[in-house]
UniProtKB/TrEMBL annotation:
One Gene Ontology MF term: sphingosine kinase activity
Record-level GO cellular component terms: cytoplasm; endomembrane system; membrane
Matches recorded under SMART domains: DAGKc
Species: Anabas testudineus (Climbing perch)
Gene coding for it: SPHK2
Name used for this protein in its record: sphingosine kinase
Biased composition (Basic and acidic residues): 420-446, 483-503, 515-527
GO biological process: positive regulation of apoptotic process; sphinganine-1-phosphate biosynthetic process; sphingosine biosynthetic process
Keyword rRNA-binding assigned: no
Acidic residues bias spans: 504-514
Region described as Disordered: spans on this chain: 1-50, 373-394, 413-567, 590-620, 641-728
Matching Pfam families: DAGK_cat, YegS_C
Presence of keyword Transferase: yes
Length: 893
């Protein structure tokens, strides 16, 4: 028995006091197995009661915060006391007659404070003297759990209890490793029922199913909408709410998340906010489910994101607006997110693996980032009262025995049709659309696609990084922007031409990375020169540990705090993979299995490989679209969702890969863009207010303050799409990098909240207060929650409703070791202390991102959006999130 040295409550504290007998047979009483949750397996059946005899007697005292349990016989005494905090209870019940008069407590104490050790479910049952006594106790405990004000004089009865909360559970059976339905059976539904919450569970059948449902349901019937999935499904729900005509009211519906995806960023933030240790998988799920049952709601910021139109016919298409609760990512982060789809079977370890693979072939992207720093940061408390929800009908399906039967696809009395025919139609439409898209690409290819690409040697880059770091140290008083500008000025045209010449000489080397390795090895007098260029991207990652070991050591010398070698990084990477408990053979098979080979074949065939060979030169006019073949191949990898959305069976790795959501499975095949690191320091930063001199700068391209600096690459050789000044922003700047999900965008209601800090996407930004940075980026990440994944504490300062966007951007030139270190530090949230002149963390209220590289990936909440200019503004406290009861003053849902 847990005995945290409880002191006996004073009589004044006691709300109730009574004597009970234990329930069960002797020492087995009050174990986890007896009794189980109401109606669940092993539940209390009348037949069971006569065989079980009371074994011990207890005195129970209920206070506002605890249930004090003192064993009276046999062996009374201090050690036979249990203090059961109400904060660890999800519910209690008193089973109906003819079951014996029991008080059943559902207790989920946290496990030991070790990562991954989860809450343990304990069921404690006490036999009351009479049924009314058991019911009185049950009502009293539930009143306390549900925030009903009570005193010692209160006459406790069921009538004091508010009606049970009703939750709409939306389950994506394919999220993460496809365990959502299984976890519903084993963890989620039992706990929700123990908390006396009514629910209606619907399995989504396809993409946008949740979005469509949410647009149409009658919201007052629900106290909350809960996603049993990853962050992607919540993105659908938020946008479904915002697409309703009554969006203003609708978006105030509390939303919650029970993590069954791979990233589970929001769940990680909720877990952190509750003060729990970082955890993954079932422990995380149990924590979040527990918090959900406790039922606290907090305001949550939403960010309105305006993206480029998806259609390539941008003249007619309008920018699209969507709402985001988590992140906008460009470059490294979005690449890893999308490309690691192929490792979906690994669960969250897919991101670790994806990170290693992407670091092995690092890219940079040319672009322009503008942001509006917060002048006065105010968090707006959620003052709006929760909407009243008239009880129109009971939606709780028969709970009794629910867990014994397999869960049906929907447990609903709402008459939601399966829409199978619609799905079929959509499949065909999608196919046609893909065909059309391919045609368009071929046409463009014939016309000559363009790309701005370049590369340089890693060794040179390291040197530059070292210099920059020294500079940054010396001139700490100045900003990194100053040093960058200084760099820019120092870098003369001749030097650049020489650099270009050097790079040209490197042509013919298979891959940029390989060339980097060779150069690096040369720089090391051949030391550790593995020389051989492995075709496997991942082999490269592995080799890096060997062939870069020396170099990383050198970097460690340059950076005194880091006796952190690449070997260490790899060690840590391995540990992380182990921690994520993806079996090593699974990871190995993911590393060496078909998808990657496929990628390599493609690489060495016509797409990336060819492109990467050319990357060694400077800007170049690409040959008519060498990517087409591989692209087509990539695009024809279809989602199994379309084939068997209902099947739910254990998957092996391949099946898992196939069962992933309909995202491009092989974006690596059409990987493309600028290689890293760039040879020429090309960052330019402009701080408004240095307003454009005249209103003639209608186009950001022609704007003086946004115009590329004289020595920036696109000023020397801009790609044709950038060269032509236009009066407005050209959405044709890029095409979507891969098949966008089968999204049909519904026009938003006209009375939507305005982005008052932003002009339309095709207009120049305001001249005051904005900061603009132009150059080559490795990544830009805008985050508004603390976590980017359940184990990536990427924005430690973030709060659900701080009214801020937390921007992290990493500029080209950063070394692989530093980048890897940054990501490992991110697990602990200590990455802000990783000192590198290439890494910046700022907060803002709005930002605009203008990719100038022709291709890349952009994600919003981890979902692919059309590649092109994008802008976003935070709308403080617009939504409401179920975060649980964490001792903070909160509104209950
Ligand atoms: N039944 C379904 N079949 C196919 N796709 C679905 C289905 N239900 C939802 N989806 C789509 O799949 C994506 C769901 O992914 P989700 O984010 O929930 O899981 P995940 O990607 O594993 O987790 P995370 O986003 O945390 O990494 C969403 O974009 C959603 O639109």
């Amino acid at each position: 028995m847990r005995s945290p040295e409880p002191s006996s409550p004073s009589p004044a504290e006691a709300l109730l006091h009574g004597q009970f007998a234990s329930w069960g047979t002797g020492s087995n009483s009050n174990s986890n197995s007896c009794p189980s949750s109401p109606g669940g397996p092993g539940g209390l059946s009348p037949a069971a009661s006569p065989t079980l005899a009371p074994a011990s007697n207890y005195a129970l005292t209920l206070t506002h915060t605890h249930i004090h349990i003192q064993r009276l016989s046999p062996r009374p005494g201090k050690e036979a006391r249990l203090l059961l905090p109400l904060s660890e209870l999800v519910g209690c019940s008193c089973p109906r007659a003819p079951a014996p008069p029991l008080l059943v407590l559902y207790w989920y104490p946290p496990g030991k404070r070790r990562k991954g050790v989860s809450r343990r479910r304990q069921v404690r049952a006490y036999l009351a003297e009479s049924r009314p006594e058991a019911e009185r106790w049950s009502a009293a405990v539930q009143c306390l759990l549900r925030g009903v004000t009570v005193t010692a004089d209160t006459e406790f009865s069921r009538s004091l209890l508010p009606r049970p909360k009703r939750l709409l559970l939306l389950v994506n059976p394919f999220s993460g490793r496809g365990q959502a339905m299984q976890w519903c059976q084993t963890h989620i539904l039992p706990m929700i029922r123990e908390a006396n919450i009514s629910y209606n569970l619907i399995q989504t059948e396809r993409q946008n199913h949740a979005r469509e449902l949410i647009r149409e349901i009658s919201l007052p019937e629900w106290d909350g909408i809960v996603i049993v999935s990853g962050d992607g499904l919540l993105h659908e729900v938020v946008n479904g709410l915002m697409e309703r005509p009554d969006w203003e009211q609708a978006i105030k519906t509390p939303v919650g998340i029970l993590p069954c995806g791979s990233g589970n960023a929001l769940a990680g933030s909720i877990n952190h906010y509750a003060g729990y240790d970082m955890c993954l998988r079932e422990p995380l799920l149990l924590n979040c489910c527990f918090l959900l049952c406790r039922g606290g709601v907090r305001p949550m910021d939403l960010v309105s994101v305006t993206t480029s139109p998806a259609s390539s016919n941008s003249r007619t298409a309008a920018p699209r607006r969507l709402f985001s609760f988590l992140s906008v990512a460009w470059g490294f982060v979005s690449d890893v997110d999308i490309e690691s789809e192929r490792y979906r079977g690994l669960g969250s370890a897919r991101f670790t693996l994806g990170t290693l693979v992407r670091i092995a072939s690092l890219r940079s992207y040319k672009g322009r980032l503008s942001y509006l720093p917060p002048s006065v940061v105010t968090t707006s408390p959620d003052t709006t009262p929760p909407p009243r929800r008239p009880l129109s009908r009971s939606i709780t399906e028969g709970l009794e025995g629910f867990c014994r039967t397999p869960i049906h696809r929907t447990c609903s009395d709402m008459g939601i049709s399966e829409q199978r025919s619609l799905r079929k139609g959509e499949g065909e439409r999608e196919k046609e659309e893909r065909q059309r898209e391919r045609e368009r690409r071929r046409e463009r290819a014939r016309g000559g696609g363009t790309g701005v690409v370049r590369a340089s040697s890693l060794a040179e880059d390291r040197e530059r990084e070292g210099e920059m770091e020294i500079e940054a140290e010396e001139g700490r008083s100045g900003t990194s922007s100053e040093s960058n500008e200084k760099d820019e000025c120092n870098m003369g045209r001749e030097e650049r031409l020489a650099g270009i010449k050097d790079e040209r000489e490197d042509e013919g080397i298979v891959e940029q990375d390989s060339s980097e390795m060779k150069e690096e090895d040369r720089g090391k007098d051949g030391e550790g020169s593995s020389g051989s260029i492995e075709e496997e991207g991942v082999l490269r990652a592995k080799e890096l540990g060997e062939s870069y070991g020396v170099d990383m050591g050198r970097e460690a010398d340059e950076e005194p705090e880091g006796c952190y070698t690449y070997q260490d990084n790899l060690q840590e990477a391995r540990k992380a993979l182990r921690k994520n408990s993806a079996p090593s053979n699974q990871i190995a098979s993911a590393l060496f299995s078909q998808p990657i080979r496929q990628e390599v074949e493609t690489d060495s065939g016509t797409s990336c490989g060819t492109e990467d060979m050319d990357l060694n030169g400077t800007y170049y006019q690409k040959d008519p679209y060498p990517l087409d073949v591989s692209r087509e191949r990539a695009l024809t990898i279809s989602s199994p969702f379309r084939h068997s959305p209902f099947s739910y069976k254990p998957k092996n790795l391949d099946q898992n890969q196939n069962a992933s959501r309909p995202r491009p499975l092989s974006l690596l095949q059409h990987s493309h863009s600028n290689s890293l690191p760039p040879k020429l320091p090309s960052l330019s930063l402009s701080l408004s207010p240095t307003p454009p001199s005249s209103p003639s700068c209608a186009s950001p391209h022609s704007s003086s303050y946004l115009a590329p600096r004289p020595n920036t690459p696109n000023s020397t050789s801009p790609s044709p799409s950038l060269r032509t000044p236009s009066s407005s922003f050209n959405f044709d700047i890029a095409e979507p990098a891969g098949p966008l999900k089968n999204r049909h965008f519904v026009s938003l209601p006209s009375n939507h909240p305005r982005d008052d800090l932003l002009p339309p996407l095709d207009q120049p930004l305001p001249t005051r207060d904005w900061v603009t940075i132009e150059g080559d980026f490795v990544l830009v990440l805008a985050l508004y929650q603390t976590h980017l994944g359940a184990d990536l504490f990427a924005a430690p300062q973030a709060k659900f409703d701080d009214g801020l966007i937390h921007l992290t951007f990493v500029r080209a030139g950063i070394s692989r070791a530093t980048l890897l270190r940054l990501f490992f530090a991110m697990e602990r949230g200590t990455h802000h202390s990783v000192s590198s002149p290439y890494v910046s963390h700022v907060t803002c209220r709005a930002f605009r991102l203008q990719p100038l590289s022709t291709r890349g990936t952009l994600t919003v909440d981890g979902e692919l959006v059309p590649y092109g200019p994008l802008q976003a503004q935070v709308h403080p406290s617009m939504g409401r999130l179920i975060v649980g009861d964490t001792g903070v003053k909160i509104t209950r849902f």
